[in-house]
What we know:
The protein has 344 residues and is mainly β. It has 3 helices and 22 strands. It has helices spanning 3-14, 205-208, 330-334; strands at 24-25, 40-53, 73-82, 107-110, 114-121, 133-134, 163-169, 176-181, 185-186, 202-203, 212-218, 227-236, 248-251, 262-265, 270-277, 283-287, 292-293, 299-300, 302-305, 310-316, 321-327, 338-343.
Amino acid sequence: MSAMTRRGLLAGAAWGGATAVLGADTSGRTAAGANHSGRVREYWIAAEPFQHCLIPTGRDACSGMRLDKSKATFWGLRYRAYTPGWRKPLPASSGLGTNDAMPGPTIRGRVGDLIRVHFRNDDHHYRMSHGMHPHGVSYTPSSDGTEIVSDPGRGGAIAPGHTYTYEWHARPDSVGTWPYHDHAMASPLPGARVNPMMPGMHMELGAELGLFGLIAITDTNTRPVDREIVLFFHDLYSADIPAFERDWDCFNGGAYLDNTPTFKARVGERVRWRVAALGTEFHVFHVHGHRWRSPDGSFHDSAVVGASTTLTVEWTENNPGSWLYHCHVVDHMKGGMIGRYTVT
Length: 344
Ligand SMILES: [Cu+2]
């Protein structure tokens, strides 16, 4: 794909050119639009199981260490975006992401938009209830997507085979990068080492297994970029997932160099990183050979990101070469949180 086509795609997906399938604009077709000034962006998303290997190359290209793929393969869960009516999975695109693993599809909107998400739980493997809980956007309790056993009706625990529709509003204070994730209770997996404090339930197991993604909200002040990178810090624990003999520290469903995504950019491009974390740990986002500026004017090449917090980092690319990005918490880097960023 030419740079021009790719840039055009990103511009279309990220900056308001909603297409027939990606956050499709259906303004004027629904009374629910009374509460918003922009478009209605419709998403059709399923939660579904898939067999996933965290280390498809079978090695860490940084240390040269060989890794046993069979010990890093498990039944993950993913959010996947479909054409209307969940008929066909949407192809990968720069606006949506890979749409075949984790994180799930990037949900985009502009201030004033109503984002309507049609959700279907297709978890025929674990047979767990799931939902979608958003950060950053505005919603009523019925679109909270959170399971509260004593306060049902929030769309937080949709049973396998069932559907639910969420309505989220992009307000002026929604601009930025936000996570969405499964917020259902789950019973521990068979064979898991259960927490004796709470033996019968497991908070956000679905999110640990892969049910998470990003929401990106823009407004007229959001500067267009040539390249947008989505990066999720997340961990998988052998205590929760009996298929594993060890814990894995992952970026976007991969662990170790050349299994995590290799991101690419060209000199002269404006590059934006949208970075998020979920789980139980704090991480340090660090990129070699690059710095960025905070709103207070200070310069950084590292920043802390913790559970449910995000970073939105931009620079104009001026340093060609093969670079590392990684978590600067050494235990996490040793556990797989390291990746490659290539500038040509
Ligand atoms: Cu970390």
